[in-house]
Design goal:
- InterPro entries: NorD/CobT, VWF_A, vWFA_dom_sf.
- This is Nitric oxide reductase NorD protein.
- The protein has 613 residues and is an alpha/beta fold.
- The chain folds into three domains: 158 residues, no CATH class; 244 residues, 3-Layer(aba) Sandwich (Rossmann fold), CATH 3.40.50; 41 residues, no CATH class.
- The protein is 34% helix and 17% strand.
- Strands 10, 11, 12, 16, 17, 18, 19, 20 and 21 form a nine-stranded mixed β-sheet that branches.
- A hairpin with a 5-residue loop joins strand 17 and strand 18.
- Helix 11 packs across helix 16.
- The protein is globular, with a radius of gyration of 33 Å.
- The termini are far apart.
């Protein structure tokens, strides 16, 4: 019996693969994955005028009411297909393309969609708008026309024959083919009950554009669909909001003789199973659409942490009143004044501590390397007297005298010790993500703490004016900035104790922390001012600060700092930082430490490079 079931399953799987392969309109041997072209497509999109901060991501499949042939109906395929679309936040492209039998054509199709999306605006009519955008693109860049024609001609050979379609479908198909060949030549498109076969060269309307985002469940939402160990989460899912069914008010029919009598009542512990279901993610993968609702009653099983502010007696110690700061809203293209509340604090429980013994040899080595910078001497040219003859000044004087234009100038050089006119503020990210382990012994926050200690030891040797701060956030009402050492304080055991008392927690609202650091650094009298940011990830918070909003606000805060004459520079250990840091800090405004354990040693060396350039 078991052997028969296994044979049936094997035959069924073979049949499924066979019929699916025969029914598919794609060319698997020429398939191109979006992941292999995602970064160049994002650069191409922005270079051709696409909205800044828009990311390239995979589009989920959507329902399309198409006319399917017999094989496709038997196989159950072509009910859903991935198409390209673009909105204010994302450029969504199919996760893979196998439209053409050649790899080069599929790659060119990805590039064409990125170029078209850069020209696109608000979509009012699918066909007319795509024609208009295509025409604008070809007129602006005539060199694109041959490549576009190759894509069109290759695609038209694969489209259904109008002779095999119903009258209304055939008329629509002919109009669409004409619109592809000659963009802008078709104004009227016949109506049809069935959708035309997908046009991969055009953008489609954004999904769920008129509905609230189903994934935004508010501050009380919890992620209870766990991904099974060893499996990766799939692409985005289509979702819709539904009202919670309370199952109240219905008609209850029962038989009175089924009720327990007093003597028959038995107490049983019928507790429900509150453990997380590891199969939930597998079930979600099989669903085409997820229905989400807010539940008023929550399960009590498992470990759930409510990330709120701790009680005042265990929280960090606040310093003074909160500070109101603005925040950049890219949707309005303006600053929202007094939108963020920043609270300056010091770590609770910090006591004066010496430098840890394990860091003493490295600190001694760094002091020896940086000692000569403190006594740096420079040659001053064109001096009236000095120890060396200024040959360049003497040659200039000789030439001018030959031409009768003798100007009095110093002809000597003198070496003098120069004072370093520099101030630096180091801003360290101590959000919840820094609690992650780098290995079995060390966490990210411990590496950051060691980096701050060695940085302080080095700069105290140099004699440069510097300040050390940490930051985290819990929504816009509570941005926390930890004062480890201000510009007016000495670097001593009190500072070392505060650094060693750092505890990770909460989130990363970078924009507010950078703006307050700009104010503190701008008050210094030094001519050169350096703002360093050490982080392990991109800006995020519990509210709308996630995604493009946080990236845009951080970028605007960096631009504000540069307008104030500061030099902002980011040091990160996030291996994916190259996807977003060039946009926020510029191509030369950041560095990636690929081995995080090297951060304590690399940080002083980076400071030396930045201050000597």
């Amino acid at each position: 019996m078991a052997f028969t079931i296994e044979v049936e399953e094997w035959v069924g799987s073979v049949w499924h693969r066979f019929i699916t392969r025969r029914a598919s309109p794609d060319f698997p041997e020429a398939r191109v994955e979006l992941a292999s072209m995602q970064r160049p497509l994002a650069l191409l999109f922005r270079a051709m005028g696409g909205a800044s901060g828009v990311g390239v991501a995979a589009a989920s499949a959507r329902d399309l009411l198409l006319r399917r042939n017999l094989l496709q109906q038997v196989a159950g395929t072509c009910k859903q297909m991935s198409v390209a679309w673009c909105d204010a936040n994302n450029l969504r492209l199919p996760p893979s393309l196998a439209v053409y039998p050649e790899v080069a054509l599929n790659q060119d199709l990805y590039r064409w969609l990125a170029l078209l999306a850069a020209q696109a605006g608000e979509m009012r009519h699918w066909a007319r708008d795509n024609q208009r955008w295509t025409l604008q693109l070809l007129e602006t860049y005539p060199a694109m026309r041959p490549r576009y024609q190759r894509l069109v001609e290759a695609h038209l050979q694969l489209r259904p024959d109008p002779v095999s379609l119903a009258k209304d479908e055939a008329e629509l198909e002919i109009a669409l083919c004409q619109a592809l060949r000659e963009p802008g030549s078709v104004e009227h498109f016949p109506r049809s009950e069935l959708a035309p076969w997908p046009l991969p060269l055009w953008l489609y309307p954004a999904q769920n554009l008129g509905e609230p985002q189903a994934c935004e469940l508010g501050e009380e939402s919890e992620g209870n669909l766990l991904t099974p160990p060893g499996e990766s989460q799939g692409g985005p899912k289509r979702a819709k909001r539904v009202e919670e069914s309370t199952s109240k008010g219905g008609l209850l029919i029962f038989r009175l003789e089924n009720l327990f009598s007093w003597s028959e009542h038995v107490e049983l512990d019928r507790c429900t199973d509150d453990s997380e279901d590891l199969d939930a993610a597998r079930v979600a993968e099989d669903l085409d659409e997820l229905a989400l609702s807010k539940q008023r009653l929550r399960k009590g099983g498992g470990l759930k942490l409510h990330l709120d502010l701790p009680p005042a007696d265990v929280d960090d110690i606040p310093l003074g009143e909160g500070i109101k700061l603005p925040e950049w809203d890219y949707r309005k293209q303006s600053l929202c004044e007094n939108f963020v509340n920043l609270q300056m604090m010091v770590p609770r429980g910090s006591e004066p501590q010496p430098l840890p013994l394990r860091l003493a040899p490295l600190a001694k080595r760094l002091r020896r390397q940086f000692e000569h910078l403190r006594n740096d001497r420079q040659w001053l040219r064109q001096q009236p007297q000095g120890s060396e003859l200024d040959m360049q000044a003497w040659l200039d004087f000789h030439v001018e005298r030959q031409h009768g234009q003798c100007v009095e100038r110093g002809l000597f050089m003198e070496q003098r010790q120069t004072r370093r006119d520099l101030a630096c503020l180091l801003l360290a990210d101590v959000s919840m993500s820094t609690d992650a382990h780098l290995d079995d012994q060390r966490r990210v926050v411990e590496v950051i703490s060691d980096s701050l200690l060695l940085f302080g030891e080095t700069l105290s040797t140099l004699g440069d004016n510097f300040a050390l701060y940490g930051f985290s956030s819990l929504r816009r009402q509570q941005v926390r900035m930890l004062e480890l050492k201000s510009f007016k304080q000495r670097y001593d055991d009190n500072t070392r104790g505060r650094i060693q008392a750092l505890k990770p927690g909460y989130y990363t609202r970078m924009g507010a922390a950078i703006r307050e650091a700009t104010v503190l650094l701008g008050a210094c009298r030094q001519r050169r001012k350096l703002l360093l940011l050490v982080t392990d990830g991109k800006p995020n918070d519990l509210d709308l600060y996630e995604g493009r909003y946080g990236v845009e606000d951080t970028r605007e805060a960096v631009l504000e700092a540069r307008r104030q004459g500061l030099l902002p520079f980011c040091i990160t250990i996030d291996q994916k930082a190259e996807d977003y840091l060039p946009y926020m800090f510029g191509a030369n405004g950041y560095t990636l430490i690929r081995q995080p354990e090297q951060l304590p040693l690399r940080l002083p060396q980076l400071y030396r490079q930045l201050t000597q350039s």
